[in-house]
Amino acid sequence: DVKVTQSSRYLVKRTGEKVFLECVQDMDHENMFWYRQDPGLGLRLIYFSYDVKMKEKGDIPEGYSVSREKKERFSLILESASTNQTSMYLCASSSGTIANEKLFFGSGTQLSVL
Amino acid sequence: DQQVKQNSPSLSVQEGRISILNCDYTNSMFDYFLWYKKYPAEGPTFLISISSIKDKNEDGRFTVFLNKSAKHLSLHIVPSQPGDSAVYFCAARRTSYDKVIFGPGTSLSVIP
């Protein structure tokens, strides 16, 4: 079974802090994604990566950056956390092309920015 | 501007009955549609999909119907079981090179 592991289940940070969300997958997948889930808005794509050191903006990249130095690890960075970034963050991975519909998700990190 | 819409935030169904979850989309370029299921404290998992060249796809108790002219799809669960209680996300993509776009989700409660 594919395993996508997110480093923290819950995280509480202060406004202005730099926040790192880590994600690791163990199936040698080429593609990795960061989504945020908000009530009434569903899953919105922040950034994705189709190869090591490659990254592409999703639908809501503002206020975020990412890093993919190794194939199995994809990090989401909030340079200066703000209260509107309080959300559930979900990491996912997939094989093949970016359009592969079978995404494997981690359990999520609930981030609260105070 | 949501391209994938799920207008019912929640749905309650009696165990053994049919659950029907609806999804509408605005982009006529979508050619592939999916449903994901999410339990609390877990990530979403892929459930079932349908290509735009079909109007129905079945997998056990789950059937997805696609009406392209109406830009509407639905997920039928028959019979519904308490373990089906979860949030269901409808999703779509435009081409075989494009990323998946998710709807807001519908929370299904199956009452024993």
Secondary-structure topology with pairs:
The complex is a heterodimer of chains A (about 110) and B (about 110).
Chain A: E1 4-6, E2 10-13, E3 19-25, E4 31-38, E5 42-49, E6 56-57, E7 64-70, E8 73-78, E9 87-94, E10 104-105, E11 109-113
Parallel strand pairs in A: 2-11
Antiparallel strand pairs in A: 1-3, 3-8, 4-5, 4-9, 5-6, 7-8, 9-10, 9-11
Chain B: E1 4-5, E2 10-14, E3 19-25, E4 32-38, E5 45-51, E6 56-59, E7 62-67, E8 72-77, E9 86-93, E10 101-102, E11 106-111
Parallel strand pairs in B: 2-11
Antiparallel strand pairs in B: 1-3, 3-8, 4-5, 4-9, 6-7, 7-8, 9-10, 9-11
- Summed up, the helix count of chain A is 0
Order of helices and strands of chain A: EEEEEEEEEEE
Largest interface: A-B, 27 and 28 residues
Sketch the major β-sheet of chain B.
6 strands, mixed
- Sketch the major β-sheet of chain A: 7 strands, mixed
Taken as a percent bin, the fraction of beta residues of chain A is over 45%
Percent of residues in beta strands of chain B: over 45%
User: By helix and strand content of chain A, what is the structural category?
Assistant: mainly beta
Secondary-structure element order of chain B, as H and E?
EEEEEEEEEEE
Low-confidence stretches of chain B: none
C-alpha geometry of chain B: globular
* Helical amount of chain A: under 10%
- What's the alpha carbon Rg of chain B, rounded to whole Å? 13 Å
- From the helix content, strand content and strand pairing of chain B, which structural class follows? mainly beta
Give the strand tally of chain A.
11
Contiguous low-pLDDT stretches of chain A (5 residues minimum) are: none
- Mean residue pLDDT of chain A: 92
Q: Give the overall average pLDDT of chain B.
A: 93
Per the principal axes of the C-alpha atoms, what is the gross shape of chain A? globular
Helical content of chain B stands at under 10%
